């Protein structure tokens, strides 16, 4: 931190390392340093580090939106899938986040045309943004979200079918659960194969 803060360089480094794991407010209580000061210095170090970034080898990225606070505040995370690290964060979750990432990528020696694959969560806004700003990219839909939609569809059909098929009564979670995690009794029930996403799950490598 700066000299006026009264900390040695080693203590500075220690605080920054601590902030990589627990929430900043916990580091504040542990170190007796105000969280405002910690956030200010974190911003300084992050912006300094970003200035020296080199994204010339970025080829495959993953992106996902998540809420950060109450009131529907969202951010979109961009991850280098090869090096398994976050490389950019944009406010919001629309196609404008792709534009923001593309501008940052070009600013740190990267190239939008060099990105060949993007993994996302099937968001129409993300698909639109990728097509507009990352022209040479193919899209791979996130396995987790695909299986989530499959399970929701299976659940919906099971709820409809159980009204006319008594064999399905009480089997909702047995059907949705992965067959490898079932007991012999549940796995051997005659109606399990009636509706079961196991084969899809297995093919996806889950």
Written description of the protein model:
The chain has 206 residues and is α/β, with parallel strands linked by helices. It has 3 domains: 3-51; 60-141, Nucleotidyltransferase, domain 5 (2-Layer Sandwich), CATH 3.30.420; 144-203, no CATH class. It is built from 9 helices and 5 strands, in the order αααβββαβαβαααα. The protein has helices at 9-18, 24-31, 35-51, 96-107, 124-133, 143-161, 172-176, 184-187, 198-203; strands at residues 60-69, 73-80, 85-91, 117-120, 138-141. A 5-stranded mixed sheet has the order 3-2-1-4-5. Strand 1 (60-69) and strand 2 (73-80) form a beta hairpin. Helix 4 runs parallel beside helix 5 (124-133). The radius of gyration is 24 Å and the shape is extended. The two termini are 46 Å apart. Residues 190-195 have low confidence and may be disordered.
Quick rundown:
With 206 residues, the chain is of the alpha/beta class. The chain has nine helices and five strands, in the order H-H-H-E-E-E-H-E-H-E-H-H-H-H.
Features:
206 residues; alpha/beta; Nucleotidyltransferase, domain 5; 5-stranded mixed beta sheet; 9 helices
